[in-house]
Amino acid sequence: MNADLFRATCKKYMELRHIRGKEALRAHTTIGSSHTFKNYWDNPSLIPIGVWEQIMGALNVPQEERIEILK
């Protein structure tokens, strides 16, 4: 997974979807704690695929961009 591309894509779609901050994004997932979300944000390779899909789904990231992140 391309960590820099993951973060850049998330920031891009957070702005487009009017999601203000990582805590607001976390609220759209099943991640219980802010600490866990921060760990995932700092090291995206730790994100379970189901949670990754929740994040991408909350941001409505197109499939083509999701595939690029995973390469």
By helix and strand content, what is the structural category? mainly alpha
The H/E string reads HHHHH
In DSSP terms (H or I, runs of 4 or more residues), the helix count works out at 5
Name the poorly predicted regions: none
Helix content: 55-70%
Count of individual domains: 1
- Radius of gyration over all CA atoms, rounded: 11 Å
The pLDDT mean sits at: 95
Spatial separation of the terminal alpha carbons: 6 Å
Q: Let me know the largest β-sheet.
A: none
Describe this protein's structure.
By secondary structure, the protein is mostly helical. The chain is built from five helices and no strands. The chain is globular, with a radius of gyration of 11 Å. The N and C termini lie close together (6 Å). The model has no long low-confidence stretch (mean pLDDT 95).
Spell out the blueprint of helices and strands.
Elements: H1 3-16, H2 22-26, H3 34-42, H4 49-59, H5 63-70
Q: Summary?
A:
This protein has 71 residues and is mainly alpha-helical.
Tags for this model:
71 residues, mainly alpha, globular
